[in-house]
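Whiteboard transcription, Tuesday session. T.W. wrote the structure tokens on the left side:
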């Protein structure tokens, strides 16, 4: 039988962000290594994190790796993503719901374009707490590192992040077991423990989990994975799949997290749900599993959309009514048509009220955030203000 997951400590979702090659994956591996020596993690080597199989579902490829570890006071699920586009997609769509993030900045190279973009992105998607890992400190001139640290405080303050702890680390040297740098990782984890508060979870709300992945486990049936957005779920509960077609109702016959069984999955958990009598092809990434009757699929909605400027990675030209980008909502992407209503055009840098008609119905509700993308670029970030039909 599988081991049970015992909820003894608060669970938080965090992740590494930052410019390519600044050492996010190396640091992720180093954290698991340092904690595995203390019994708080299973060591996950660099190659296992960076070579997560790509999940291709309905035309979107997403790449995201989850590792888990425990400090003295918390249980963490930690995500690392290989490319900038993966951050944009996973963060804006809320596929990675981060309670806090570790912004990795190379002390040798300093602030780079994706450092700026990720700070902006973190603010836009509501990541309230950041800790900086000033990485590659093993090879950096300390005075240069001081300068990078000053510039970082300015950048972060400009996005409303104040008193952000900056910890000088070396993921690479910690992985090699160098005691000085192992201690730097411990200091980083202490900063995360202290600076990122346990979030308020909507455990009491009706259950909702966006479908991230679907697999068949031989002899057991269909397993659906995702991050529980709100509420809780236990064996014996009935859930309803909503969006992208007809949907279905099914009974949950197993709840697991990171390969261990759970009595009850709660908001904030990464869960795998075993569903009775459901075929794999009935479930799709982009649907939501919800408490019966609580959610409905819609195609039209009103929204407020901020159009990213070219400097933020967005468009350089205006959009007009009839514009047809992709809308990334929770774990799916659907094409849709934009109606600007009274406005003739909307320029990058503006926030506009629009009506959107999607090509397919998905679960929608006021307050839901989404990303607007075209040709591999994120051009807008929006919030649903009203569901129309
Ligand atoms: P990512 O793209 O942010 O995930 O960066 P990686 O973790 O893949 O690291 C990029 C490169 O930087 C690799 O060659 C690493 O070995 C190197 N690197 C990562 N961390 C450190 C560090 O702390 N010190 C030094 N000197 N090199 C590092
Ligand atoms: Mg990486």
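and on the right, the sequence the group agreed on:
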């Amino acid at each position: 039988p599988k081991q049970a997951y015992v909820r003894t400590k608060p669970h938080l979702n965090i992740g590494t962000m930052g410019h390519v090659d600044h050492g996010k994956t190396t640091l992720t591996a180093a954290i698991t290594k340092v904690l595995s020596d203390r019994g708080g993690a299973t060591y996950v080597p660099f190659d296992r994190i960076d070579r997560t199989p790509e999940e291709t579902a309905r035309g979107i490829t997403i790449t995201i790796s989850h590792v888990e570890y425990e400090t003295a006071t918390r249980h963490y699920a930690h995500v690392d993503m290989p490319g900038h586009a993966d951050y944009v997609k996973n963060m804006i769509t809320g596929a990675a719901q981060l309670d806090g993030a570790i912004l990795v900045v190379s002390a040798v190279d300093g602030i780079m374009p994706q450092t700026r973009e990720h700070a902006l992105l973190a603010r836009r998607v509501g990541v309230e707490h950041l800790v900086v890992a000033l990485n590659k400190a093993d090879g950096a001139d300390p005075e240069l590192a001081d300068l990078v640290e000053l510039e970082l405080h300015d950048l972060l303050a400009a996005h409303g992040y104040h008193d952000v702890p900056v910890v000088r680390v070396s993921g690479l040297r910690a992985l090699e077991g160098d005691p000085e740098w192992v201690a730097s990782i411990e200091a980083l984890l202490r900063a995360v423990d202290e600076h990122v508060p346990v979030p308020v979870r909507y455990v009491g709300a009706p259950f909702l989990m966006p479908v991230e992945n679907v697999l068949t486990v031989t002899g057991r049936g269909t397993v659906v994975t995702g991050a529980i957005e709100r509420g809780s779920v236990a064996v014996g509960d009935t859930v309803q799949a909503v969006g992208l077609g007809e949907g279905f109702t099914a009974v949950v016959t197993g709840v697991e997290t990171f390969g261990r069984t759970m009595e009850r999955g709660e908001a904030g958990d990464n869960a795998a749900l075993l569903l009775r009598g459901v075929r794999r092809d009935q479930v799709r990434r982009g649907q939501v599993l919800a408490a019966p009757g609580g959610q409905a699929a819609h195609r039209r909605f009103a929204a407020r959309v901020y159009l990213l400027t070219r400097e933020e990675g967005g468009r350089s030209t205006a959009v007009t009514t009839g514009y047809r980008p992709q809308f990334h909502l929770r774990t799916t992407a659907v094409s849709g048509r934009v109606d600007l209503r009274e406005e003739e055009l909307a320029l990058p840098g503006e926030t506009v009220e629009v009506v959107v008609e999607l090509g397919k119905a998905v679960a929608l509700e006021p307050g839901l955030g989404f990303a607007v993308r075209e040709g591999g670029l994120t051009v807008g970030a929006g919030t649903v203000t009203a569901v129309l039909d």
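Someone added at the bottom: The radius of gyration is 21 Å.
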